[in-house]
């Protein structure tokens, strides 16, 4: 039995966009059979933006530029998560022109996907909520996706 900490743990995640306007989702051992946003735990004395950069570099060997915050979520003892935790999730919009490398053995897969198509892949509920929040408040303004939508409409 794992003892719960007496306080929530802060986590910083990145909604990482590539040049095409797709977002990066990863599969790891924390959410079995679900995609999730990359990120991780905040270290003592580390600010949230630096956490996102460090965790993505550390786990995927990829540099990102943090653009702004999407939302904050409270995560409490979710039954599908690999252990019982109480987390505070700080989700940020990030950009990169690099491709990930699976250098962390806990990350088993990744995919680039259009933000509006992410929910159909089977993603954890907190990542799904962060992406939905981004789409509702910022919209996907990527030219490539606008062109793709025009082509689909004409077909």
Provide a brief overview of the structure:
With 155 residues, this protein is α+β, with helices and mostly antiparallel strands. 25% of the residues lie in helices and 32% in strands.
What is the number of helices?
3
* Unreliably modeled segments: 141-155
| Helix/sheet category | alpha+beta
Task: Identify the overall geometry.
Answer: globular
Rounded to an integer in angstroms, the radius of gyration calculated over CA atoms is 16 Å
Number of E-type strands = 7
Characteristics:
globular; alpha+beta; 155 residues; disordered C terminus; 3-stranded antiparallel β-sheet; 3 helices; 4-stranded mixed β-sheet
Give a description of the structure:
With 155 residues, the protein is an alpha+beta fold. The chain contains 3 helices and 7 strands, in the order ββββαβββαα. The protein has helices spanning 48-60, 125-137, 143-154; strands at 9-17, 23-28, 35-36, 39-41, 65-76, 86-95, 107-113. The protein has a 4-stranded mixed beta sheet with strand order 4-1-6-5, with helices on both faces. The radius of gyration is 16 Å and the shape is globular. The protein starts with 8 loop residues before the first strand and ends with a helix. Mean pLDDT is 84; it is low at 141-155.
Strand-helix topology:
Blueprint: E1 9-17, E2 23-28, E3 35-36, E4 39-41, H1 48-60, E5 65-76, E6 86-95, E7 107-113, H2 125-137, H3 143-154
Parallel strand pairs: 1-6
Antiparallel strand pairs: 1-4, 2-3, 2-7, 5-6
């Amino acid at each position: 039995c794992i003892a719960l900490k007496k306080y929530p743990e802060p986590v910083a995640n990145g909604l990482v966009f590539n040049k095409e306007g797709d977002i990066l989702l990863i599969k790891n051992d924390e959410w079995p059979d679900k995609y999730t946003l990359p990120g991780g735990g905040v270290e003592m004395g580390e600010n949230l933006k630096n956490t996102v950069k460090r965790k993505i570099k550390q786990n995927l060997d990829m540099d990102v530029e943090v653009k702004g915050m999407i939302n904050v979520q409270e995560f409490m003892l979710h039954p599908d998560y690999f252990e019982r935790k109480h987390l505070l999730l700080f989700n940020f919009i990030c950009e990169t022109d690099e491709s990930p490398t699976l250098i962390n053995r806990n990350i088993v897969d990744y995919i680039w996907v259009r933000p509006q198509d992410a929910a159909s892949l089977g993603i954890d509920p907190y990542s799904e909520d962060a992406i939905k929040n981004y789409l509702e408040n910022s919209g996907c303004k990527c030219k490539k996706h606008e062109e793709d939508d025009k082509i689909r409409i004409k077909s």
